[in-house]
Design goal:
Length: 294
Amino acid sequence: MVAAVAGTEHVTLAAETLGVPQPTLSRALARAQEELGIALVERTGRGVRLTRAGRILLPHVERALDDLRRGMAELTGAEEGRVALTFLPTLGVEVVPVLLRGFRAEHPGVRFSLTQEPWAESLSRVSSGGADLALTSPLPSGRGLASAVLHTQSLRLVVPEGHALARSPRGVAAVAAAEEEFVLLKPGRGVRHLTDRLLDRAGFTPRVAFEADDISTARGLVAAGLGVSVLPARPRGPLAGTVELPVLGGGADRPIGVVWPREGSGGGYEPPAVALFRDYVRRVGPRIIPGLTG
């Protein structure tokens, strides 16, 4: 309103610019001046101009309008929006950078807010509206979230070289490791959730030698002989000093995918840029993730 009056120096022309009746603009301007207790405009013959107070206020009004325009662009513009993405630490090494680089080459105006965090926290963030999408594993059931699988890894029983179980290259049942000490990931990590579920189905609770923050540390500690672990198969082959054994009996897999609020949750609105990036991930992810995880 103030900006329109400043630009036209005429209430009727300002009203036409804003697309409102002139009396409506006059009443709004009078109400604003009354609430502020300061005159913002003054008459100059047949027109109006800003008072000194109005001129001081004008740049703040213009900045607010610019912020509003940028906000509307994020809400409605597929090529100017913002995507809030949360992802697993293991996917931040190569997978997320590759996805972002490819997407931004096609859509350079889209910006990202990134959060790297464990599985449970990433699902909670999407559920609460703190993120638009999550790249994570395992995928949720219920919780108001939808998901799509991009790649499924096999889980392996990882043992040190020379371990008695290493002589079973065709695989072992999970219960064969019931007497072993385990190197596990910390609670809240997706692989820990899958491991707990797998060993519970096998009928035992593991003895824990150490709880690691990440998969790479767990692998290294197995190689050092600290214990055995259940980890995703390593794409480049077992880490030196370890042997990876198939786990027989089913349930030994790790689906990796993209998660987003189910339709009807999260206020029922999805910015176009978010949908654009999710579609890109679903199209490209299954091709690039298999060689970049684990």
